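Q: I'm building a small set of examples for a reading group on sequence design. Run inverse folding on the following structure and report the sequence directly after it, with nothing in between.
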């Protein structure tokens, strides 16, 4: 069980915040396939403050009764704006606020956001402390970190300084990705480091992240490192069935086989319908292409199916892809 202060989850595996992917339709699919907790795609603090006043809020911020518990991840550089955005997200009904000090994208770093904050402990502490004071005590606050900005010993020292300081200022948990900021997504996630982090943290809650694409790996990493839970990221884009596989593996049960073509067809259609309901027919047809590329990875004819999804321009095209490639 994961305990984020007042929020308790019976399954120690969550859906990570996935920029450009973990919108309301994807979160719903993850939940229907076994996720107990999901995170929205990362929000820029300025975006939250401005979009929350306009019509676009229904696309990004609106929650319904089925979308709980769900957390919102914030990114920015100014403590005042972090506070304003966090308050707005609580007003919209999010159950947890997560602060992103990990994003490795170059333009994000250039604006002193995301992973840049791992080079500036005082600013990181000010953001954590002020957001914790600003939001209600029953709303958990968490942070997302990478193992450091780079591989230097000074960067590692700053990592542990930020980790300890954030807990002192009231965070409920930290999710740690086992690559440095400068690594971005190259090389392998360093799970030996995550084991060190958990031993250092003791009873404080640590979630691990990075390179988890199958249930056996998830269970092995949790046992080897002792982390309290994991945040599944790229591994569940197009493969939400990973949640049920991990659940079985953690229970000591046989891991369910990959989904049949019939199961894949049903979930893809469900995902498309949810997207169309939220965004409308025109936008959903193009937005769903990025998901189609990932769904195709489970198909025996991956390349042909991927190309068919990418070429789809409307609902009829999507239904044709499912009719052609997902019938048995």
């Amino acid at each position: 069980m994961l305990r984020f202060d007042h929020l308790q989850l019976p399954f120690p595996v969550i859906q990570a915040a996935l920029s450009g992917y973990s919108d309301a339709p994807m979160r719903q699919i993850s939940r229907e396939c076994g996720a107990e907790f999901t995170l929205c795609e990362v929000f820029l603090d300025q975006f939250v403050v401005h979009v929350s006043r306009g019509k676009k809020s229904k696309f990004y911020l609106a929650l319904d009764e089925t979308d709980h518990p769900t957390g919102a991840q914030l990114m920015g550089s100014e403590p005042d704006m972090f506070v304003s955005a966090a308050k707005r997200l609580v007003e919209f009904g999010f159950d947890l606020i997560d602060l992103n000090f990990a994003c490795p994208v170059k333009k994000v770093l250039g604006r002193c956001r995301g992973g840049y904050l791992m080079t500036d402990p005082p600013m990181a502490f000010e953001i954590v402390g002020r957001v914790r004071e600003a939001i209600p005590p029953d709303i958990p606050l968490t942070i997302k970190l990478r193992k450091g900005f780079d591989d230097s010993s000074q960067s590692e020292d700053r990592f542990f300084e930020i980790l300890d300081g954030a807990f002192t200022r009231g965070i409920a948990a930290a999710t740690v990705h086992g690559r440095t900021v400068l690594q971005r997504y190259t090389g392998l996630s360093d799970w030996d480091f995550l084991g060190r982090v958990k031993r250092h943290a003791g009873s404080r809650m640590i979630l691990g992240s990075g390179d988890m694409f199958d249930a056996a790996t998830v269970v092995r990493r949790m046992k080897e490192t002792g982390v309290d839970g994991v945040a599944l990221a790229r591994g569940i884009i197009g493969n939400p069935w990973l949640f049920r596989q991990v659940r079985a593996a953690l229970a000591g049960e046989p891991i369910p086989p990959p989904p049949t073509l019939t199961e894949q067809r049903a979930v893809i259609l469900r995902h498309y319908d949810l997207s169309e309901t939220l965004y409308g027919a025109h936008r959903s047809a193009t937005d769903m292409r990025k998901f189609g590329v990932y769904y195709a990875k489970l198909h025996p004819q991956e390349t042909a199916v991927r190309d068919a999804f990418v070429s789809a321009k409307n609902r009829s095209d999507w239904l044709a892809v499912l009719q052609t490639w997902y019938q048995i």
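The chain has two domains: 2-250, 261-325.
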